[in-house]
Design goal:
By secondary structure, the protein is α+β, with helices and mostly antiparallel strands. The chain has 4 domains: about 100 residues, Alpha-Beta Plaits (2-Layer Sandwich), CATH 3.30.70.270; about 60 residues, 3-Layer(aba) Sandwich (MutS, DNA mismatch repair protein, domain I); about 60 residues, 5' to 3' exonuclease, C-terminal subdomain (DNA polymerase, domain 1, Orthogonal Bundle), CATH 1.10.150; about 100 residues, Dna Ligase, domain 1. Helix content is about 35%, strand content about 20%. It has 13 helices and 12 strands. The strands form 3 sheets. Strands 5-6-1-7-8 form a 5-stranded mixed sheet. It has a 4-stranded antiparallel sheet with strand order 9-12-10-11, with helices on one face. Strands 3-2-4 form a 3-stranded mixed sheet. Strand 5 and strand 6 form a beta hairpin. The radius of gyration is 22 Å and the shape is globular.
């Protein structure tokens, strides 16, 4: 049986800021650029008490917590700390799958270290992170990947939670279905319409009926409700796409989005600098006031070579949005996709099909 650990750094960006600037410790810290179109990258636990959360518009965060200290993000510094943490994990296993700068899965079924159990390894990793970086991390230990991720959130911050094989079904039964990976608001509503609100109820539902209603994902839901997850840890998973997006405080027409698109292109390009892979496709994402999502994409003859080129292509994609001119938008995003390694021949397929 496999043994998985999910490590999740606690309020990572904000914690790095508080570590490096003692005057911020104990204060509500919001990592974000100020401005009506900025969103929160991270919030310290002191700020979360006021309801501030990641991806929230910065202006809303300021209203919720007027005394918050806003700190512009420094991704170069965060990446350096993330690499320190990654090195600690790799002492214990080569099977490390990063999900982002602040979290990763580990398969410790056959660990490199001499520690006797997955729980002991998780304790050691957390202790080494604290000693060597001055930061805290939460960890979940379980016999399945998706369970380890649920477990790591169970005793945050600075916690450790273990789900043993014989505890899986009892642990899952009372959880709301939204705790299952991939169950968002829409799927949660569809399941609720069937009288299914807990994982236990989902487990009791007929798997074939779920498959008939939701396709392959219905069968996947039934398996997860039974604690079955065949997912494996995939180290060094290559970058497939990178994007940034902003949600506006007030809905805006398409013609008012140029400056935001340029800013997002700059931020996406900065994120792209963290991978050696090359992106072929530029993607523009829009969400209307009615929550309709549109994407437009373009694969130029030569890959984008700068933030300015990325911005230019994203702005050109606006011309391919065929909604009425008075349509208002609540979100815009700029992304890069169709990545390839520098020594590979890039594929010609676009990230998305025809719009």
């Amino acid at each position: 049986m496999h043994k998985f650990i999910h490590i999740d750094m606690d309020a990572f960006y904000a914690s790095v800021e508080q570590r490096d600037d003692p005057s911020l410790r104990g204060r509500p810290v919001v990592v974000a650029w100020r401005g009506a179109r900025s969103v929160v990258c991270a919030a310290s636990y002191e700020a979360r008490v006021f309801g501030v959360r990641s991806a929230m518009p910065a202006v809303r965060a300021e209203r919720l917590c007027p005394d918050a200290v806003f700190v512009p993000p420094d991704f170069t510094r965060y990446k350096a700390v993330s690499q320190q943490v990654r090195a600690i994990m790799l002492r214990h296993t080569d099977l490390v799958e990063p999900l982002s700068l602040d979290e990763a899965y580990l398969d410790v079924t056959a660990p490199k270290s001499a520690l006797g159990s997955a729980t002991a390894i998780a304790r050691a990793i957390r202790a080494q992170i604290r000693e060597e970086t001055g930061l805290t991390a939460s960890a979940g230990v379980a016999p399945a990947k998706f369970l380890a991720k649920i477990a790591s959130d169970w005793r945050k911050p600075d916690g450790l939670f273990v789900i043993r094989p014989n505890e899986v079904l009892d642990f899952l039964a009372p959880l709301p279905v939204a705790r299952i990976h991939g169950v968002g608001k829409v799927m949660e509503g569809k399941l609720a319409a069937l009288g299914i609100t807990t994982v236990g109820q989902l487990r009791a539902a007929d798997a074939h009926a779920l498959q008939a209603r939701f396709g392959r994902y219905g069968l996947r839901l039934s398996e997860l409700a039974h604690g079955i997850d065949h997912g494996e840890v995939r180290p060094d998973r290559p970058t497939q796409s990178i994007s940034t997006e902003d949600t506006f405080e007030h809905d805006l027409p398409l013609g008012a989005l140029d400056d935001t698109i340029r800013d997002l292109a700059t931020r996406t390009w900065a994120a792209r600098d963290r991978t050696p892979r090359i992106a072929r496709t530029v993607v523009l994402k829009l969400k209307t006031r009615e929550f309709r999502i549109l994407t437009r994409s373009h694969t130029p003859e030569h890959p984008p070579a700068s933030a300015a080129m990325l911005a230019r292509i994203a702005l050109e994609l606006c011309a391919r949005v065929d909604l009425p001119a008075d349509t208002l938008y609540r979100l815009v995003g700029v992304g890069l996709g169709n990545f390839f390694d520098p020594d590979d021949t890039p594929g010609q397929a676009e990230l998305f099909g025809p719009p």
